[in-house]
Amino acid sequence: MRYKKGHFYIENVSAKNIARQFGTPSYVYSYSKIKDNIINFKKKFKTINPLICFSVKSNANLHILSLINKFGLGADVVSKGELLVALKAKIKPEKIVFSGVGKTVEELKFAINKKILLINAESENEIIEIEKIAKKSKKKINIGLRLNPDIDAKTLKKISTGKKENKFGLNGKEILKILIKYKNSKFINIICLSVHIGSQITSHIPYKNMLKEVNKIIQKSKYKFEYIDLGGGMGIQYEKKLRKLNYSKYNKLIKSFLSKNNAKIIFEPGRSIVGNAGYLISKITYIKKNNSKNFVILDAAMNDLIRPALYGAKHKIVPSKLSGVKIIKKHEFVGPICETTDKFLTVSKYQKIYQRDMVIICDVGAYGMVLSSNYNLRTKPVEILVNKSSTKIITKRQKLNEIT
Ligand code: LLP
To answer: What domains appear along the chain, each with residue ranges and CATH number?
Structure first.
């Protein structure tokens, strides 16, 4: 934690000053954390020299995407909107991949027109649609096939994607069939095998199993894929007790895979690039005490950050000013929304805090603002980028007259 003289700082700016200047609730991102995360990610996989396509769904802010572009990453998009914002951030089409089970014909046409690197198809019917577009425009289109490897990613059930009961991808048999069917196609060029088994993965074992399944497809088909897209999913440490993904083991597994199969690796990380670089500053509106616990009622709610309500996810909540006095009593941090699940965190003790104090909900850079809504007709928060001592609004706070 970054406290200076008892005050919480994001780079060189205190949370208190940000709150004073921009109000609360506010999403705040650290420029240097994003930069460091990218540098570290590249370092960890340096020896395999992958194409790293940032998963735009985790944070679709134009300014953040411009940073991502500046530091050399491409983009993984799942809708026309994400593709548009990635292009607006000047990410080159040849570094963009498009995934998703339900790409519409309009989205496919748009992506093809923009000449992106590849479309990762998730069903045979999708390939048929791509083929129709290709025939009409007399083009051969590069695609990837997304494998559903039936692997348990050992993560939150709601964010697992690689089990056979999940809607994602094609099973091994279907992939083998499609590879034969489109081998000599004039319109479809299968250049990639892609896979993504889930998010917030903290063990290398599911990845090991995933690579095994990818390998099986290659062995059985004897097909030469130019790219192998391994998706994202690398977990972060939301809580100290959570284990850290062993990147060096994962890297080794990939190296050994590449020693048998010559291909360019693509990654689609989201959370591991921006997750720990985001903070949600919130003010305590009321403290409501009962015998068993203190409800700390914040001005942030599940419409601002839905992960705890939706997935039971835990985000640390730290005070903006240290008081040095501990209260041994249950504290339940909640929002003002009329839903019992509008609850962020329960802890068994907390420092003495008061109404109007600020707290910081940590690690909200990924799947935070992108999942926000106007539920209860609440406006969406402002987004601020901090770089050393400078602060910049990168999305204005929504105004009530924009939604009412
Ligand atoms: N590639 C594909 C095909 C994906 O579906 C995803 C995430 C990613 C890459 C990026 O995964 P990451 O590196 O960020 O784990 N809203 C949930 C997470 C949903 C993830 C969906 N897919 C959450 O807040 O935990």
So the answer is: 2-29+275-402 (2.40.37.10), 31-273 (3.20.20.10)
